[in-house]
Input
Amino acid sequence: MTLAEHRILSHHGAESNIDSTSHNRRTRVGDVLTWSLAVLACLWLGLCTGIGPLYWNKQGLAQFTWVNAAYACLTFIATFAVIVVLVRVGEGRPILPVLRHPRNATGCIVGAGGPAAAATTRRMAVRIRMARRTRRFVDRAARWLGRGLVAVTNRGWKIATLLVVGWLWVPVTLLSAFGADMRSQIREFSWAYNQWTGVRQPYIGFFSFVPMDTYPTAHYMWPVKPTYLTDQHNIALTVFYGSVASVSRYFTGSNDWGIVALSAAQCLFAAFCCASCAHRFLNMPWRTTQRPSPNVSRLIPGERYTPRDLTHPEYGMRRDREAGVVGKNARGVGTRIAPAGPFARLVTMVFFLVCPLVIFSTISLTKSPVFAFAFVWWFGACYELHMTRRTAAAPRVPAGFPRSTTTAALVISICLMMLSAKYAWYLLMAQVIFLLIADRHRWKTYLVVFALPVLVIHIAMSLLFSTGAVLSGDPIESRGIQLQQIARVAKLNPNGIPSSARTLLAPIFNLDQMADSYFQQDADPVKSSGIQAKKVSYRWRSVTKDDMSHFDAAWWQIVKANPRIATDAFLAKCFGYFDVADEPYVPMDYYLANDYVTHWSTWIKYWQPQWRVTVVRQTQSIGSIPVIGWLTHGNFYVILTLLLGAAEVIERRWNTLVWHLPLLLLMGVMITAPANNFERHMLPVAFVFCFMALTYWRESKPRAEERASSR
Output
């Protein structure tokens, strides 16, 4: 080798060492950042759990003791341990270190021999034979039951049939579940219908009390031409529910038949949405419909999956990440991604058939269940897009639109989410931005299938509001945290409110009434939401737009003067969503046996009234059992979702995280919601947790197989 060649090789080697050092440094920095996010998540969960007993006893941070600190530390340790376990599973490592016993040349464990062992050889042999026979019998039974479970869940219509049959007792014996929202929606539509038919009704006046005053909408926002429709509970649902109730009154004389029909229709819709999502996650139908051919790499998109047997999806699928290599990954190690096994199917079906969050939501006529089931449908369709995306290992995957059924599912589910929840606009637009950044090859799909329906519906709603045909919601609805902070200060330290803040707030709120109506679990009393006999803390009749422009300045002055009380108000309003020991403020069983069902209804209240009460009591008794009862509460699944998301961050599964970011945004919605630990706000996260966990396990399996093959 010449001197010049030696210098060139030395130069390239130095560059390689520099690149390796730079890469290692970036990796270490990334590890620190991702683990720091996980630590922050655990600290937040520990804080919410530690301060829980304080707010249960109507105390605050001033009463924080070492007992609360101990609760917080134990929660931090437990949650961080869960993340560590998830990361080890994600990396294909055993949860606990494997202890290997030293063996001699014959394969026997060292120290296991001796005269005592020889004397018991016959008895041990008999026991071993019995154990083997028992194990074979159990294995055969498990295999038979597993194949049967796969056979009854390998199609979407089969899953839907199981759900409909399993849920049938709910609409048959309980008929329907609803609350104040349903009553307000029916009244709003009735007033609007009377206006359309020429019936004179009060609109503006000192003694008038119209639907816009129930959940107050400031009078300065009212149009000149009278209207009785508001977007308080989403105008589309208000018109739909109200029209069905009106038809029911016309033919039967009461709203009840219409309400029962709405609950039955929602139950069928829920079965369809859950079955569609479960079918995509469990069976991966966009793969099993593909027929293998000699050139699999061109026919099967994504990471190139080949079914092992088209007639038996339970046999699994082979994954090819390298052109021309079937069933091998980039390192030549055999891998496969298969439809879900019997255990995953069993857990998923049991959750949807048994969990009170699901079964009571099927007939609960509020906006949140409709959004939640539409979100489940959308989540399943998004998973198909995620699994068929173009990657470095599959650069020739078509970037066009997905299957027609998937495209229709995305468009319809997005429309339903937009029409049932106001915050869907922000959630979906943020998701479109994330997708355009993460998967630019499908930008047409995201703009047409995602952004276009969102923009069309948002523009249509904006036109309705601008023309005065429908009243938009009062901006005060989104200021729950600020209202709770002002009200708590007014209640606990009224002299601590600066005089300038009092002057700015005087045209907007009655501070004495705010203090009197303050309730740490719910901001609605402070907003004067409710019936006519409510306490008027919010001056919605006389407040002006100019008055509201000073609200933020007054709030900030109060918070600066009372930081601890303001922090108490914030935490008391949202800690329950992240404290697994906190029981729900309003559980889903509330809608089964409240006064609106048991007194306001015409004949529903006479249908199995004792059974309805028994179901509610049994659900509450199970939910109050420590640990076991957590499975019936929404915050349990919120916490697990947060921990699973932290593990995905540490594993740097960025493409998967893009599809799971809406779950994090939904947690932000919970924090800003008017009430603490309100279960209907947690339904979307709880419904898709099983599928998120299945995705994590499925993406971790190739690493486990690779690690096992390298030993």
About this structure: The longest helix spans residues 3-56. Residues 475-578 form one domain. The chain is about 60% helix and 0% strand.
